[in-house]
Amino acid sequence: MSWKFLNKKPLSNERKYQVILAPVITEKATMGSEHNQVTFKVAADATKPEIKAAVEGLFDVKVEGVNTLNTKGKVKRFRGRLGQRSGYKKAVVRLAEGQSIDVTTGL
Amino acid sequence: MQISEIKNEGLSREYSVTISAADIDKRIDGRLQEVGSTIKIPGFRPGKVPMAILRQRFSKSVMGEVLEAAVNESSQEVLRQNELRPAMQPKIEIDSFDEGKDLIYKMGVECMPEIKEMDFGKIELTRLKAKVDDKEIEEAVERIAKDFRKSEPIAKARKMKSGDVAVIDFKGSVDGVEFPGGAGEGHHLELGSNSFIPGFEEQLVGAKAGDDLDVKVTFPAEYHSEDLAGKDAVFAVSVKETREYVDQEINDEFAKSLGLEDLDQLKGQVRERMENDYNQVSRTRLKRELLDALHEGHEFDVPAGMVEQEFEQIWKQFEQARDAGQLDESETSKGEDELKAEYREIAERRVALGLLLSELGTKNNIQVTQDDLNRAMVQEAQKYPGQEAQVFEFYQKNPEALANLQAPIFEEKVVDFLLEMAKISDTEVSVEELMKDPDEEDAPAPKAKKTKAKKAASKKAAAKKTAAKKAD
Fold first, then answer.
1. Residue B110 burial by Cβ neighbours in a 10 Å radius (0-12, 13-18, 19+)
2. Among B39, B44, B49, B57, the residue to mutate for chain A (most A Cβ within 10 A)
3. Is there a contact between B307 and B348 (Cβ–Cβ < 8 Å)?
4. Which of B49, B281, B324, B466 has the fewest CB atoms within 10 Å around its CB?
5. How does residue B302 score in pLDDT terms, banded at 50, 70 and 90?
6. pLDDT: is A54 or B378 the higher one?
7. pLDDT score of B456 more than 50
């Protein structure tokens, strides 16, 4: 276990904004909205507890659970050279019953 | 949708129309759905974009479109419900609108006036007929003959006089230096024709064939060549030959030289042409009389907006003419207000007649057929010899231009139709009487002429406008 999980200090406001990068607006992400789930792009080093704290703090909602996944960048060839697209971490956040975030309005 | 009438005066009506917010929202949603099925947004397959996102992204731009459609549709509805026949595009003014609120707008319409047809059988017209008398034909033939006269060498050597033709070689110089274009050989110069520099021809009067002489002239100050303007020049002229004009004898021979069989045929053709001319004038007069009669026989309000439009047009023409300095004395002598009043009257008459003619045309099912159009097109094409194909192509490619052709034909047809019903009595008059402006007797001449000319030109415009309106 790394030090991150031992750190019990409350998340600073600055860190909250660093963790949540952007909402993911795709067909798949909107499918989740039927199950009270909202998807964000998050910092690659963000942990689930951090994300939970950040979403609760920034959007003023109750978070039931957080699932995360790392999207790897594709390897692309440009002028015969290999290149790596940058990947990102996504977090699917399940909100408590009856709560919602309007992802389109922004912060 | 709620409609309430605010104003109902004469021909103009005003309505206030309210469209509920829910109605507009429904329209917007419908439109968004349409847009959504084709639009591409990253993260979504085409047609799979959720409504919420569509609304957030596109509702603003769709709004304008929807509002326009809503206003158009509802204004049409207003016209239908109240059974109005608009004379012009309704004027629409949006009073208030916000997202999520009701749309309220004001609509001003000018209706077409109810036109009660008069009994056309009661119209009495006189057709002026001018007979072409033989004397005139003789004169015309003589004129033609003069145009074709030949010059022949003067048989007995004599001094030349004005009207003779000198065949000359000449060489001109300024200050002893020859200048380009100042020399010529075997030039036929008619004395007194003023085709040369002033003073040149006069000095040749009295010369004989074979004479050599110096002609001293001064180029006029506003001569087209700057180098020569105002300079004194000396032309060394040698007269080679002197000729004089011989009157062309009017006989079969002359007719043959014009490519005709004999003199009678020439006379026949001249007569035909003159008769055609007179018939045309007589028809114009007749038409004018008819229009006057129609104008008097019908009493109806004229939509103010149309008059205003027509007036603007006339005024613009007038201003153009004024700027170009092509005004009659009668126009410059009057004040602007006076002129405006005068033109307004003309505009009213034009609009009234235009409306009347188009109304009569539609009521009596007068239509411009393709044949008529083709004929007009051919006529138009003949005005540009050598470019007929281009003219045809132009009309094929430009339906508006064709519509322009249509209006006068339509007018003519309606006039024909009316003339058939009207009582027409023929009167024989002299040519001078036929050509005389009918207004000259009772009104100051120049004004009347102007009005007439303008009327003739623009009644078409009015008819055109109404015809065009009917088309859409």
1. buried
2. B44
3. yes
4. B324
5. confident
6. A54
7. no
Residues B277, B419: one domain?
yes
* B279 has pLDDT over 90: no
Q: How many CB atoms lie within 10 A of CB B172?
A: 22
CB contact under 8 A, B52 and A29: no
Structural contact between residues B217 and B170, judged by C-beta atoms closer than 8 angstroms = no
Cβ distance of B43 and A29 shorter than 8 Å: yes
Give yes or no: residues B268 and B237 share one domain.
Answer: no
Confidence of residue A68 (pLDDT cuts 50, 70, 90): very high
Is B115 contained in some domain? no
In A, which residues are within 8 Å of B56 by CB distance? 104
ipTM: 0.72
Average pLDDT over residues B396-407: 76
CA atoms within 13 A on the CB side of A58: 25
Residue B52 lies in a domain: yes
Q: What is the pLDDT of residues A73-90, one digit of tens each?
A: 999 988 888 888 899 999
B44/A27 Cβ within 8 A: yes
Residue B176 lies in a domain: yes
Q: Answer yes or no: do B282 and B421 share one domain.
A: yes
- State the pLDDT at residue B431: 66
CATH number at residue B241: 3.10.50.40
Domain coverage including residue B182? 150-246
B378 and B272 share one domain: yes
Size of interface A-B (CB pairs under 8 A): 15
pLDDT score recorded for residue A89: 93
**Beta strands A37-42 and A88-95, pairing class:** antiparallel
Of B45, B52, B56, the CB nearest to A27: B45
Of the candidates B355, B357, B383, which has an alpha carbon nearest to the alpha carbon of residue B368?
B357
